[in-house]
Amino acid sequence: MSKSRNTVAKDNATQAIVIADTFEDEFVPISNDVPLCLFRVVNRPLIDYTLEFLSLGGIEETFLFCCNHVAAVKAHIKKSIDEAVGWTLTMKVHIIVSESCWSFGDCLRDLDAKGLLRGDFVLLEPGVISNIQLLPLLKKHSEVFQLDKGAAMTLIYQESSIGHMALCPQDETIIAYNSKNRVLFHKKTQKTKEKRVTFPLEIFIENSSVSVRHNLKDTHIAICSPAVLPLFSDNFDFQTKDDFVKGLLINEDILGSTIYCQILKGSNYGSAISNWRMYQAVSLELNNKWVYPIVPTVKRNRTLPENSALMLQLEKIVIGPNCIIKKGAKVTAGSILGKGVVINEDILITNVLIQSTKSDDILAQPIDKIGEFAYRLRACEDEEDLDLDKLLANKLSRLHIGDDLYEYDGDSDDEFSDSSEELSHTYSPPPDDTKLFFTEVVDSLTRGYEDKLLCDNLILEVNSSRYAYNITLKEVNYNVIKAILTLSQNLPNGTQYFPQLSQLLSYFSPILKNYIKNEAAMADCLQAIEDIAISNTELKDKWVIFLLKYLYEKDFLSEEAILKWFSNVKQDSKLYNQVEPFANWLQEAEEEDSSDDESE
Amino acid sequence: MTVQCEFQAVVLAAGKGSRMLEFTAGKPKCLLPVGSKPLIWYILNSLQKSGFTEAIMIVLEDQKTEIQSAIENEIGNNTLNIKIEYVSFDDKEDLGTADSLRLKEVQEKIKSDVLVVSCDLITDVNFVDVLNTFRKHNASMTSLLFPSSNIEPVVVPGPRSKHKPEKDLIGIDERTSRLVFSASASDFEEEVSLPMSLLKKHQHIKLYSTLCDSHVYVLKNWVMQYLKSEDNFMSLKGELIPYIVKKQLSKPIKPADTNVSTVNDKDVCDIFSFAKEDQLSLDIREASAYNDHKGDLKPTYNEDPIRCYAYLAPKGCIGIRINTLPAYWSTNGKIQDIWDKVSGDQKLIKHSVNADIKSNQVDDKCVIWDGAKLSEKTSFKNTLIGMNASVNSFSRVFNSIIMNNVVIKEKVAIENSIISDNAVIESGSKIKNCIIGNHYLISQDSEHANEILTKALMHF
């Protein structure tokens, strides 16, 4: 066998850097055990796709930068070389190890120190899968470099469309570039959620035409001049490629470097698996051959006799290696055959999972044996009712990472128009507003009590907070009472406690009067008392009863309201025991009243 | 019964030429001589070439007769064949371009969609192309834009000054040619902010800072109706057009109660109540497989009732607006080179047969109008001599524009200057790089260089 793969790369070999590890925690906990580059994507380690892409793209020497799980990666690369897989014929891979790197930028600084790169090179962020021809892009970059010696990097984008499955919302970018493809503005939109995007005026004035685009997908591939690595070394705050782009655009004059971009169209594909969402999207696109000629592994070592009938919906059938399907057997959509399964003659396989050995699962039953090397698997007991797609969907449902659905709000236009229209939009406040409202009320009341402010003014203050946070009346009642009770907990303990509490309550009585106006408000008030009583274990035993008695005597609460509330309190709770005597007393009083009435 | 025409042309000719008052004061801007024709002739000729047989022309009351007679003169000479209806208003009313379209006489005449052109445009673009862009998308507004014609730096008469061209920021959707952003660069200080919704809707916008707005607009009939009801707009380019462009991004506010008839709501002058499309077009659009954009699942045109488009003139097209001194001066210098393009098949008459040319030193680049009188022993190079102007013996005029009825006495030397109507240059004067205003009198044996000599400017 030829030893060509072991020859030292030529001096002018085209080089690429692949950073193998993601430094985000997107894939934790799985990435704790398996490095990202060995993640299986449609049954094949991710790095295989990346390396195949690089070698097809014309790269001759690749530096694979590993920080974690180095042994596993090394073993895998060695195995690939031993098996002489496609890329090993034209490309040499060096594994660079540094366990001290904590970011993308650190890796590049480390590489700069090692001085391995000779000229322009291709830089891949973790998890790239693509089918782009790299040599024309390298050529274009060097042409640009002839005209602009400051050209440091060419970013490769793929034309896409916002809302497209394969465009990761976190990657949504607005870029502006001039007629020479020089990037003038770069901004990731997802993080900010701003309603307007601000561009410096000068970029429009200095260039006769500027393309502002929002339909680009970052392929996470970049063509770099040799200057890129020293730039990373000089700027220790560059942690990611985005930092680099941002830093260069802001400090263009100081760093004297520029960034260009290339927009790919048509069948050129590039994506990076940067999170689970992209994992799913890229898997689907690989499966659907969007990345041709990079395709998932095809069937191998399967014996299909000529007249065995596969109901030809291959994309819905999974057949493992070394399967044998004998003459006359039929396998229909939805079936999954594991490794080494043998399907005997004239057997119909519909929508089942089959493995070659007997399952130890408790669900396994004798009738599941289909052949010597074919056992039916049950995923759950009532499997018959579920079709396979649904089953898989359930299993994979964790993969649907909740994207904010891309909304195309024609309404948000209005900032562009008159303010009067803007007012017509009401947004339901996020739940946090209630909390904010509560803290504001507590602040107002504390200050009011300390400075002895007029309660009327405090009511005004509370009401304005209410409108600021758009709080319903019910919540206002509840929160105001809760706030007053919260204040009461700050009173010094001891014998003076109850006199001080009644002093506090009487001070706030105008406020109580203002907010506890009807039955519903009484219910809110009682709810607040209950919540405070339950959540706070350090309260004095008599606190609740004292409070209820006070409020009852001052006519803030009616006995019906108290009794009605009390009937809903859990009987075995501490609160119930505390309130019971008072409730009994009320009950008796009422009965007395009614008997008095009768006697009269 | 006459068939209603699809488009009506409106020519705005009431401008005063406020950017070049030095020589337009006291004279209609649209009658400035450019080559052998008055400025207005070029646009009327373009309209005629594009198939218009009629045009409505808005002029100032006190200039009406002068303009009318100049145009009738052209029609009489068979160099123009277009029927003009004049609408005039008093100079004192000080109306903007949008105001003048709101005039009752104009509104009464407008029955269909409108092509609005300015009188100061010289172009070889066929307006049919602009109209087709408009037709294709059933647009609300379409404007004609030129890649900025960099006016070559020429030595301009008058004191040396730097001309800062006004820059517009114009955003065009690269895929659909929708005009999505229009503003003057001077509206911004250091930053330009665009709404996110715009960038989401139009994912590839090309923002130009060097385009030249030709002031050619095709307006849907409803825009005229809307203009009638809304009197806040002064000018077309500065106010109405940016407003309509902006409003594309809005959606009509859905009436809360559909049962209430809105017919009586005269107060509600919402632009969307004018911009309604008829149900048939909407149904056809829905049934059609056509979509103007791809990449999302939004309906054609994103269901926008207001749609503005830009027609970008192809490269190499001529489009010059004669609204500044450098533009006027440089255009006059090169008009003979571009004559074939801008005039169609008209023949360039350099020396009018009705001119009395006794001089034998008139070079190839001179243009001499009707009734001009050039005495013996005079010398002319690259010069325009206006109607009924007279130049007496022993005078020479190089690289200059001499307008109508100018009298140049003996032994006068004029170089690189503009001499406005009815000016009188007494004998023995030497004038270089000057602009001489209307009715101005240059006294005997005086010398002037790099000056603006006019009565009109005194008032400013």
Automatic annotation (TrEMBL), chain A:
Signal peptide residues on this chain, from the entry's feature table: none
Protein name per UniProt: Translation initiation factor eIF2B subunit epsilon
Chief subcellular location: cytoplasm
UniProtKB keywords: Cytoplasm
Keyword Cytoplasm in record: yes
One MF annotation (Gene Ontology) recorded for this entry: guanyl-nucleotide exchange factor activity
GO cellular component, one term: eukaryotic translation initiation factor 2B complex
Matches recorded under SMART domains: eIF5C
SUPFAM superfamilies: ARM repeat, Nucleotide-diphospho-sugar transferases
Cellular location(s): Cytoplasm, Cytosol
Cross-referenced PROSITE patterns: W2
Quaternary structure and partners: Component of the translation initiation factor 2B (eIF2B) complex which is a heterodecamer of two sets of five different subunits: alpha, beta, gamma, delta and epsilon. Subunits alpha, beta and delta comprise a regulatory subcomplex and subunits epsilon and gamma comprise a catalytic subcomplex. Within the complex, the hexameric regulatory complex resides at the center, with the two heterodimeric catalytic subcomplexes bound on opposite sides.
Pfam families on file: W2
UniProt similarity note: Belongs to the eIF-2B gamma/epsilon subunits family.
Domain W2: 431-596
Automatic annotation (TrEMBL), chain B:
Any one GO molecular function term: translation initiation factor activity
Designated name of the protein: Translation initiation factor eIF2B subunit gamma
Localization per Swiss-Prot or TrEMBL: Cytoplasm, Cytosol
Subunit structure: Component of the translation initiation factor 2B (eIF2B) complex which is a heterodecamer of two sets of five different subunits: alpha, beta, gamma, delta and epsilon. Subunits alpha, beta and delta comprise a regulatory subcomplex and subunits epsilon and gamma comprise a catalytic subcomplex. Within the complex, the hexameric regulatory complex resides at the center, with the two heterodimeric catalytic subcomplexes bound on opposite sides.
Biological process according to GO: cytoplasmic translational initiation
Keyword Protein biosynthesis found: yes
Keywords: Cytoplasm, Initiation factor, Protein biosynthesis
Cellular component, GO annotation: cytosol; eukaryotic translation initiation factor 2B complex
Family: Belongs to the eIF-2B gamma/epsilon subunits family.
Residue span(s) of domain Nucleotidyl transferase: 9-148
Gene3D superfamilies per record: Hexapeptide repeat proteins, Spore Coat Polysaccharide Biosynthesis Protein SpsA, Chain A
Mannose-1-phosphate guanyltransferase C-terminal domain residues: 365-442
Function text: Acts as a component of the translation initiation factor 2B (eIF2B) complex, which catalyzes the exchange of GDP for GTP on the eukaryotic initiation factor 2 (eIF2) complex gamma subunit. Its guanine nucleotide exchange factor activity is repressed when bound to eIF2 complex phosphorylated on the alpha subunit, thereby limiting the amount of methionyl-initiator methionine tRNA available to the ribosome and consequently global translation is repressed.
InterPro entries reported for this sequence: eIF2B_gamma (IPR051960), GMPPB_C (IPR056729), NTP_transferase_dom (IPR005835), Nucleotide-diphossugar_trans (IPR029044)
